[in-house]
Design brief:
17 strands; Elongation Factor Tu (Ef-tu), domain 3; Aminopeptidase; binds zinc ion
Length: 369
């Protein structure tokens, strides 16, 4: 006999199931900034297994960006769509005599969340745990303060420096060892939904038939300063670009409504400006028009903090018109990012419709501002 309490909180539709399966695979891959190889290889294999419609090329540039150009000799504006492959994590920077590993964060990680995290090094080859001085050995003064990164280490169970050196090299990465989970009410959790959710949308968009040159950039090193996108935009030389991202979501207890950047489940978020770019008004207007015409939910990203690859793309060569489409995501840069599968579906649909509108309007000359 089944009771209500034993039933899952939520049952995905077939379409959602397919998205979740791919998002799970993407989020479980380890690709801290500068070490995106596994993510790139997975994406490349997917693209080769399900090629885009029309003539296309796939290349990995010297920085590691994966660039796909579809229908490059078609007329009309060159449309770039970007999503970053990298995730935040830790880099092993020193090995102590007793075999403990010292590390530095890669990307914006709050050191207060690090103690007691279970991590994995070298694509899961070496398991470990982040440790610090135990609480019962701390002075009352120490107990009041958060650990600093310098006071923490990764314990892989090695008993000496040479034993640790046999397992791990300096410069290797550690990632949070958090399994992807389907939660209740249409939500999923994973360590790298920022920005594998964007990568998934871009992968899906590559299956669409585009009337204009469609230039996909799966970028590297976004989390350490939008580095890969600069090179990708230079190489692809686009007229316009859409950046697919996740953005902070603060629909949480204790956060006043005015400070809630985005709300989970209320649709993809559009940005008018952030720390790194001011969005092109016409491109944003077209996205809004498409959302309203199709009855898709959308929301503004409130507040102007944060930045993304749009900032690096817009200043390449003679300038690129940019806009971003972001999925609200709770607990960004933490071991368990949470996002809504409905937002993912709506984000994909809005990106698809919006990009067709861009292609249509800009091919007709388009009003620039
Ligand atoms: Zn991101």
């Amino acid at each position: 006999m089944t009771t209500a309490a034993q039933e899952p909180l939520w049952t995905p539709t077939k379409g959602q199931e397919a998205l979740i399966t791919r998002l799970r695979q993407l989020s479980e891959l380890d690709g801290v900034s500068g070490g995106e190889g596994p993510v790139r290889e997975w994406l490349r294999a997917q693209i080769e297994a399900q090629p885009p419609k029309g003539p296309f090329t796939v290349e990995t540039d010297p920085m590691g960006n994966l660039l796909v150009r579809v229908g490059e000799d078609r007329p009309g504006p060159r449309v770039m769509v970007a999503a970053h492959m990298d995730e935040v994590g830790l880099m092993i920077t020193a090995i102590e005599d007793d075999g403990l590993l010292r590390f530095r964060p890669v990307g914006g990680i709050d050191p207060r969340i690090l103690p007691a995290q279970v991590v994995r090094i070298g694509q899961g080859r070496v398991p470990g745990v982040v440790g610090g001085k135990p609480i019962h050995l701390q002075t009352p003064e120490e107990r009041k303060k958060a650990y600093r990164v310098e006071e923490l280490y990764i314990d892989i169970g090695a008993r000496s420096r040479s034993e640790a050196e046999g397992a791990v090299q300096l410069g290797e990465y550690a990632t949070f060892d958090t399994p992807f989970q389907v939660l209740g009410e249409g939500l999923v959790m994973g360590k790298a939904l920022d920005d594998r959710a964007g990568c998934l949308i871009l992968l899906e968009l590559l299956q669409e038939e585009w009337p204009v040159p469609f230039l996909a950039a799966f970028t590297v090193q976004e989390e350490v300063g939008l580095r890969g996108a600069q090179v990708a935009a230079y190489r692809l030389n686009p007229d316009v670009a859409l950046v697919l991202e996740t953005t902070s979501c603060a629909d949480l207890p204790g956060v006043p409504p005015a400070k809630q950047v985005t709300r989970l489940g209320a649709g993809p978020a559009l940005t008018f400006r952030d720390r790194t770019s001011i969005a092109d008004p016409q491109l944003v207007r077209l996205l809004i028009q498409e959302a309203e015409a199709a009855g898709l939910p959308w929301q503004w990203k409130h507040g102007t903090a944060g930045g993304n690859d749009a900032g690096a793309i817009q200043t390449q060569r003679g300038g690129v018109r940019v806009a971003s489409l972001s999925l609200p995501c709770r607990y960004l840069h933490q071991p368990g990012n949470v996002l809504s599968v409905r937002d993912l579906e709506h984000g994909l649909e809005l990106a698809r419709r919006g990009l067709h509108a861009w292609a249509r309007e800009l091919s007709n000359g388009g009003d620039r501002r």
